[in-house]
Write a structure and sequence with these properties.
Blueprint: E1 4-8, H1 11-22, E2 27-34, E3 37-43, H2 45-53, H3 64-67, H4 85-90, H5 129-134, H6 164-203, H7 205-217, H8 221-229, H9 237-251, E4 253-254, E5 266-271, H10 278-293, E6 298-302, H11 312-321, E7 325-327, H12 331-340, E8 346-350, H13 360-369, E9 375-382, H14 387-398, E10 404-408, H15 417-426, E11 429-434, E12 443-445, H16 448-457, H17 473-478
Parallel strand pairs: 4-11, 5-8, 5-9, 6-7, 6-8, 9-10, 10-11
Antiparallel strand pairs: 1-3, 2-3, 11-12
Helix pairs in contact: 6-7, 7-8, 7-9, 10-11, 14-15
């Protein structure tokens, strides 16, 4: 088999090179982003037919006690393969049954009675994200391969028993064969998924449109694919968009009002990487509190003693508001400051910015968790960051738990679906959104309806280089990496 590698600046250019070199019937082995562009591994359709017509690699006759040491399985849900015995015994007698014949229909999500002005949705059905996103839809309901019963062969005599060296060589050959079979299974799954999505584009254009809209809005391919696959049938474009917004809204957790924060009081620490706007957001929250409750019962603390003049910015805001700012360096200082401010209704802590890959993250989480006074940790997420970066930040700062998050730099983001996607997946509660530098004007309570509408309707140039073409969607869906970090999508 002659496998060729194609490299382009983007997937569109690489696919064009594949089509030019191998024709329209080329078989794609892999399509992945690499440093500097996109890499595609492919071979011709004739090579695939040649593989299918090859004779079995293993000889027909083998001692049964050698073969029974190895199992194989085409099921990704088992720790060990089922049995290679059935494969060897069947040989060329087995006939291939197309996977499409074994696919069961996805559970339907039915709409209740509709009125001209409202769209009622049945909320009693639930779909598991962790299972569905981890298993390609083409194989999700496939039956397991059952091993056949084979009569035990006569035991070979002592002189026929293979040597230890021969057993070792056979073990290596079988391990290599199992590895090749698993790789081939992954390739076939990817190809069948791409073919399935190509058919969906023709038969159900609304699903294709929804998928394109979600990807353009910044939502991950895994979540976009899940929502598109479970979109109720017979919906026009308008109702499909309404359903998507409804499901996203059901799963985006926000606070209803400021009772949970400024009105209820307590100690709140704003944490996050460098440059996400923690100090400015702390000043905005302090100003909102002063406007509502006055300066008497507000305390401000900063742990930013690492940067030159790091605490001066908050001191300036505190001076304007008439609130004293306490600077702390370590656990002892923090305990002293909290003790001095124990009679304050609300205490806001501005922390030093630390990269999610810095070991100081652990030290900072330990510092905030070392006091007897419970401190609620609010993670600041930069809306301009990619979904992968935001996921990395959340996992690094989770530590002993997060109480919520704040989206910052909303005004600078070209898309915000990436931030909403990660918040939904990680099941974080969204408190506020910050969309500018003005204090205290540019901070608002998180409104899920407005955020989802904004995400789905952000205007973008028609020639955006990061926007996917319609013909590229099957390849994207065929190579989507499943995500198992979400247990259930409510309302879907």
């Amino acid at each position: 088999m002659n496998i060729k590698r194609f490299f382009g600046k983007n997937s569109r250019e690489a696919l064009s090179m594949v089509r030019k070199a191998l024709g329209d019937n080329a078989v794609i082995l892999s399509n992945r982003a690499v440093a500097g562009g996109n890499e595609i591994m492919a071979f011709t359709e004739e090579d695939m037919h040649a593989i299918a017509n090859n004779e079995p690699l293993m000889p027909a006759a083998r001692p049964s006690n050698m073969v029974q040491d190895f199992d194989y399985s085409l099921s990704a849900h088992q720790d060990e393969p089922t049995t290679l015995l059935s494969l060897l015994s069947k040989g060329s007698k087995n006939t291939y049954q197309p996977a499409a014949a074994q696919i069961e229909e996805l559970p339907k999500i039915h709409f209740a009675a509709e009125t001209p002005d409202t769209l009622e949705i049945d909320l009693h059905s639930g779909l598991s994200l962790s299972d569905d996103l981890n298993t390609p839809s083409v194989f999700k309901n496939q039956r397991k391969v059952e091993p056949e019963t084979i009569n035990e062969a006569p035991k070979p005599s002592m002189q026929d028993k293979p040597s230890a060296t021969h057993k070792s060589a056979t073990s290596q050959q079988m391990a290599f064969m199992l590895s090749e079979m698993r790789n081939m299974r992954n390739v076939i799954e990817s190809q069948l998924t791409a073919i399935s999505w190509g058919n969906i584009q023709q038969r159900e254009p609304v699903k294709s449109e929804i998928l394109s809209t979600l990807l353009t809005a910044g939502f991950s391919p895994a979540l976009s694919r899940y929502l598109a696959e479970n979109l109720p049938d017979s919906l026009d474009s308008k109702k499909a968009n309404a359903w998507i917004k409804y499901i996203l809204g059901k799963n985006l957790s926000t606070i209803e009002n400021e009772t949970e924060v400024l009105d209820q009081g307590g100690v709140f620490a704003l944490i996050g990487p460098t440059g996400v706007g923690k100090t400015t957001t702390t000043a905005k929250l302090a100003a909102r509190y002063v406007m509502k409750h006055g300066t008497q019962n507000l305390g401000l603390i900063t742990t930013d003693a690492y940067r030159v003049g790091g605490h001066e910015q908050l001191r300036i805001y505190g001076k304007i508001l008439g609130v004293m700012v306490h600077a702390v360096k370590d656990e002892a200082d923090l305990k002293i400051a909290l003790n001095e401010l124990k009679n304050k209704h609300t205490i806001l802590i501005d922390t030093v910015g630390v990269s999610q890959r810095d070991r100081m993250v652990t030290e900072q989480i330990s510092l905030l968790s070392s006091t007897k006074t419970p401190i609620k940790k609010l993670l600041c997420l930069n809306a301009t960051s990619t979904g992968e970066t935001l996921t990395d930040v959340i996992h690094a700062y989770k530590g002993k738990g997060l109480d919520g998050c704040i989206i910052t730099k909303l005004d600078e983001a070209a898309t915000i679906g990436n931030a909403l996607d990660v918040i939904i997946r990680e099941k974080l509660k969204l408190y506020y959104t910050a969309n500018g530098q003005r204090v205290p004007e540019d901070i608002n309570l998180a409104n899920k309806i407005e955020l989802i509408h904004l995400a789905m309707n952000l205007k973008s140039p028609a020639n955006r280089p990061f926007q996917f073409l319609t013909e590229e969607l099957p390849f994207i869906m065929g190579n989507t990496v499943p995500s198992g970090n979400t247990s259930q999508l409510m309302g879907a």
